[in-house]
Amino acid sequence: MFLVDARITGKRLVARDMYVITMHAPPIASTVLPGQFVNIGWSPGPMLRRPFSVYRVDGERIEIVLKAVGVGTAQLLSMTQGDRVSCLGPLGHGFEFGAGPRSAVLVSGGLGVASMTLAARQAASLGIRVTWVHGARTKEDLCSESDGDDLIWATDDGSKGVKGTAVAAAPDADLVLACGPNRMLAAVAARWPEAQVAVETYMGCGTGVCLGCAVPLKRGGYDRACREGPVYRASDIDWATLPSHLSYAATP
Amino acid sequence: MFLVDARITGKRLVARDMYVITMHAPPIASTVLPGQFVNIGWSPGPMLRRPFSVYRVDGERIEIVLKAVGVGTAQLLSMTQGDRVSCLGPLGHGFEFGAGPRSAVLVSGGLGVASMTLAARQAASLGIRVTWVHGARTKEDLCSESDGDDLIWATDDGSKGVKGTAVAAAPDADLVLACGPNRMLAAVAARWPEAQVAVETYMGCGTGVCLGCAVPLKRGGYDRACREGPVYRASDIDWATLPSHLSYAATP
Amino acid sequence: MSVDVGALTLRGPILAASGTFGYGTEVPLLERRALGGMVSKGIFLRPRSGTPPPRIVETPSGMLNAIGLQGPGVEALIRDYAPKWAEWDFPVFVNINGESAAEYAELTARLDGVPGVAGFEINISCPNVEQGGLYFGNDPRAAAAVTDAVRKRTRLPVWVKLTPMVSDIGVIARAVEAAGADALCAINTFVGMSIDLNVYQPRLSFRTGGLSGPAIRPLAVHLAHQAARAVRIPVIGIGGIATAEDALEFLVAGCTAVQVGTATFVNPRAIAEVHDGIAAFLGARGLSSPADLPRYLPRD
Amino acid sequence: MSVDVGALTLRGPILAASGTFGYGTEVPLLERRALGGMVSKGIFLRPRSGTPPPRIVETPSGMLNAIGLQGPGVEALIRDYAPKWAEWDFPVFVNINGESAAEYAELTARLDGVPGVAGFEINISCPNVEQGGLYFGNDPRAAAAVTDAVRKRTRLPVWVKLTPMVSDIGVIARAVEAAGADALCAINTFVGMSIDLNVYQPRLSFRTGGLSGPAIRPLAVHLAHQAARAVRIPVIGIGGIATAEDALEFLVAGCTAVQVGTATFVNPRAIAEVHDGIAAFLGARGLSSPADLPRYLPRD
Ligand SMILES: Cc1cc2nc3c(=O)[nH]c(=O)nc-3n(C[C@H](O)[C@H](O)[C@H](O)COP(=O)(O)OP(=O)(O)OC[C@H]3O[C@@H](n4cnc5c(N)ncnc54)[C@H](O)[C@@H]3O)c2cc1C
Ligand SMILES: Cc1cc2nc3c(=O)[nH]c(=O)nc-3n(C[C@H](O)[C@H](O)[C@H](O)COP(=O)(O)OP(=O)(O)OC[C@H]3O[C@@H](n4cnc5c(N)ncnc54)[C@H](O)[C@@H]3O)c2cc1C
Ligand SMILES: Cc1cc2nc3c(=O)[nH]c(=O)nc-3n(C[C@H](O)[C@H](O)[C@H](O)COP(=O)(O)O)c2cc1C
Ligand SMILES: Cc1cc2nc3c(=O)[nH]c(=O)nc-3n(C[C@H](O)[C@H](O)[C@H](O)COP(=O)(O)O)c2cc1C
Ligand code: FES
Ligand code: FES
Fold first, then answer.
1. Closest Cα to residue B229, out of B214, B219, B239, B243?
2. Which of B62, B120, B125, B149 lies 20 to 30 Å from B105 when distance is taken between CA atoms?
3. pLDDT of residue D131
4. Are A180 and A200 within one domain?
5. Which residue of D has its CA nearest to C195?
């Protein structure tokens, strides 16, 4: 875990209102694993840091993807090259690729692409064939960037790719990784209990000390999304108790 | 009084660490009188607005002069062209030029130049001969801009102009106007009881409703710096009760 | 947008809070149409000059104030301000203060029937001089005694403004309800202190001050909610409201109306923006009045 | 930079606050040299799973939390954490919680003498189940009874952590001092609420939560100061400390040491920065220890 005073180096549009922000954070760039996140703070800004998955790594830079959903994300998006943020990470426990899967399907809803790119690249480097299913409300909300061998689009209104949800559009595979609104992940859990899903919770610290990021478990009790998670085996989570209205993405 | 969403149009250095910020605020530019101030807020920023004298008017723009003395002024100085602030003004009761003075002496300490330029120009336009005495701790702290017919510099260390205070260096005149740290103004009051001085207080609202900006009066009770002030007849103020440690300028 | 606070109908759910709006004569930028009513700066029987400066200090998302109830006294208020209020199209409540129940009663008797005075907001966050300076607002009996004393002197609406620094606000709320209050205002400022490290002394000359602003909002929502759960009379929510969403939190938590204070220092148009924002929120959800909002108000 | 809290000498005036530092095992970036000590997450006799999410909400300059004292219970604490604490070079206090004085006593008896346990911080902001859920911390007798019950079971330092939602903190402070507390910790979080307008319900699943962070600092300085004026034992200031200046306000206001909580979420290095900032402040003024700071502490 590093605390980096990171310079913002760029910003690009990847879907309607959805941007990738690039920042210079060498020790995080060189150690982050797929599914991990960073906790970002700045001043003046909100009191608490804001967690974001690491979307891509580019040399000494990391990238995050976001939309303005509230005051913090709006401020982040209004920053310009050269502005600085305090970047804490890498945090959390990411995706696991186990021994010898031959195929992987990545299911992402809306901003859920955030933790998929690193996963796709890691899978490819392990010789796994990757199918990435991108879901969004409509064509304009689909992220224009992707990785993997095969690509499937799904939109609620059928304006691009399959009409319907990403979960419905996805084929089966040895390994299923998913990220998106918690409600989408519940659907993933219903179809693939063994899938690995990256969940969202409110976070206080991001480092395991506050117990604010409780993820309710099927076996009872709570885990910390920022330490044991954010990636879980889908069937381990008590989906009925995990709040669904924290979702930051547009598609169900 | 106007509430203007003002665009910052420029910034220039006028003394060590001392800047003039220019902003586009047409209705304020066209109505402000010497000695009046604006109350500026921005987001994200401190909760309360920050009061600043209007230093100069340039067409539809107003100018303020400041140093970074705390979090608010530091944030203001880090803004760049195109950034926006909320500018409330003009506020307060400024300098009066009465009937027929022939000479005026303007005494400013450090950032006290802030309310002097407009006064110098107004006096000149009324045919009054203006002597401006600029005081500061040392040469580098003297504002490089000034108006008026005669100019006297005073520095604590004698590095430029007269060695000593601006008050000591100033000649007499029909009209004495002064702005600077409250302690300097107390010295003005001792020498020229009839002088007009622009004082400083903490301010809550700037518009007369909170009674936070109390100025203690010799005759008892309190006035509001934001309405009846910030300009007072020097002898009206109970200098012993007016806090002196609010001073924002470097010279005594 | 009209709401009923007991027998009184306000044209909108937002009032200007005491001490943040003077006597209503100094707020040129506010569109008055948005005002459901206003509460005057706190008044005592006799003129008071208030505390020496510094009187205010900024704190994170808030401010401390120690104005010391500077004011002209009741006679000057009746002479200089009430005649103006009588011409306005929204009600003006007078925030009344005293050092004994008798002083509150005398103030009420003097103001009752004066044209322009629509009702009373009793500030019980005052030290009770007869009881060694304990605050009326901390003691259910003293709070009830003051309420009763005022109630007996007027038929106008009597609101009681609760102090937040109590261990159970419901007890005080019920006591003043029983003593005849028409509505409760929750809450007044919290006592706070800030130290100037240059002089190793409090920054405020009065040493302590009242904390207001967004910092206290979550506490105020809780206390207003607790008060609303404890009584049947309406509760007016106060504390850190700056946006329509903030006001709506109080309304959903069981309040009938709200007051906005500190936010008007930051944004002179705050009350109009809160008003229009509530109207838009209701409109978007097909609700025709603030009273139609779903409430979160389990009864004890 | 060492300070004496009663008979105990801490190597520095800053401790990590309960519930914001876990069991001290998870804070990789903090330079531990800056820690005068730490207080563990609040513990009950038996394991507790805590409240369902959402457990935290951000508020202006603060946050509400409702963790529900999730924890492993005292046996697991003794097994898993105390052995590590025994090896550390700063003292670890255990924040103890119960539903009755007997539960606090039992917890103390179980922990007393366990290597690694340097002392007790009694959290009296717990509902007293035997008295219908009233908080121990709101009632001087209940607070004293809990203190007394703990005091009788241990010779280790006993600190009592005061709750802020009382009308006179001095009364509680004196009561627990008389019952044998070695020091007071002031203060715990304030109760607050935040409403989710999408569902017309509180945002926290527990409905209310404790407010912490800079928002409460002026209130905390005042309450810690009031506690310090009321007693002769040391007071440890807590609430919204994020910088050295913030900590110095508490010290000047009469505190002997401070605890830092929420700020460490924002800045994992906060405690080291506060420590170094205090040292720099003292150095610049030729003061050799925090105890040499001029105090603003008029006695009642
Ligand atoms: C492990 C993790 C990874 C994440 N990765 C990404 C990502 O890659 N891209 C992205 O756009 N978003 C991501 N999020 C969500 C992101 O953190 C929130 O959208 C952001 O914190 C909102 O801040 P705000 O100030 O704009 O919103 P606020 O004004 O605080 O609130 C707006 C809404 O955002 C949600 N929200 C607020 N705070 C949080 C929080 N701390 N955690 C989760 N939801 C919150 C709530 O639904 C709230 O109603 C991630 C969250 C987690 C926990
Ligand atoms: C009528 C008036 C006109 C002013 N004109 C100018 C000007 O033209 N140029 C200029 O540089 N400054 C001016 N000031 C002072 C300026 O408002 C303060 O320096 C500024 O508010 C400090 O804000 P901050 O956030 O940087 O400081 P803070 O972090 O808030 O505090 C730093 C120090 O600044 C002082 N200060 C803080 N707030 C205020 C306040 N509201 N009023 C006065 N002092 C304060 C205190 O001494 C404090 O210790 C004026 C003040 C008034 C009342
Ligand atoms: C400068 C100032 C003066 C105040 N004066 C009074 C007063 O005279 N009487 C009173 O009952 N409340 C007074 N208050 C309290 C406010 O009416 C209100 O209860 C409090 O500020 C919380 O609301 P806010 O956060 O919206 O400001 C005052 C508040 C401020 C900031
Ligand atoms: C997430 C969280 C958990 C907490 N848990 C406890 C606890 O278990 N026991 C306790 O006495 N105080 C607990 N507190 C209160 C803190 O110890 C501290 O008193 C309070 O947060 C104020 O300090 P701060 O503003 O520096 O955070 C907790 C606070 C937070 C934010
Ligand atoms: S966010 Fe604090 S423990 Fe996970
Ligand atoms: S600053 Fe509010 S009355 Fe002057």
1. B214
2. B62
3. 74
4. yes
5. D249
